Amino acid sequence: MKMDPDDAATRRAARPVICYPTVTLPPVPLEAYRTALADAEIAGRVRIAPREAETFRVPAGAFFRVRSVEGPQVGDLNLWAADDLSERFYSGKTRALHGTHVSTGARLWSCFPHLRPMATIVEDDLDWYGIDSDGGSVHDVIGTRCDPYTAHLLSGRQYHACCHSNLTRALAAHLGCAATEAEPHVHDVLNVFMCTGFTRDTGQYFMKASPVRPGDAITFLAEIDLLGALSACPGGDCGSEHSSDAAPCHPLEVEILRPAPGSLAGWAEPSRNGYDRGHGA
Ligand SMILES: [Zn+2]
Questions:
Q1: How far does the centroid of ligand 1 lie from the alpha carbon of residue 250, in Å?
Q2: 3-state secondary structure of 271
Q3: In terms of pTM, does the model score above 0.85?
């Protein structure tokens, strides 16, 4: 390793600048969302078996709630525009805008060229957790999804119940196509209820047992018509290992909630990004 230059301390003391200040984003009308959620009626419920995934539809202006049932469990969430699977959740830009972990008031953004809110977090029963002494927090957009390719790379095994495969099977069943055809639509997830961070000494991605308990939930407003898919991660609470059948694993539940007519007055589906796509060409 190279020696520190004489002015190393000065260079390291440069002031951090937030890359993407969000003050110019339209404000999130959380109170209006919460009021609408308070009177919303359950319009559907999907149960996700351990080490499986299910798809669900949420119309724009309705809510969906992911709930822990039976035991601590992490879920891997994918979102697509219901009528155009090429518009899908962009975890990297969501991270750049809102931080490594998301909670109440954060929005889940779609990929280029759309880059608009797909969903907004309205309530989060784990918002008390904050950032722990290991630097860990809940609901991350830093992990990708557990997948059989990385598992094979690191261990040489063939394992088929990783979230990537669960999401692939669920989407294939929804579309009525082969798994190989559905697979390219599966993307980096929101890790619902997962507690993660980066180690301070090596900067490596870590996970620790999720603080979620049965009954805890996170609730989103669908800003556009959504197709969602949620996998009950084979890691269970992700306190020991994933990509295997070793960890105790529990179901998850998704509830679709329809607000009373007129209760979201003033809300409008966000339009696609206004960049003209000229790219200077
Ligand atoms: Zn997983």
A1: 12
A2: coil
A3: yes
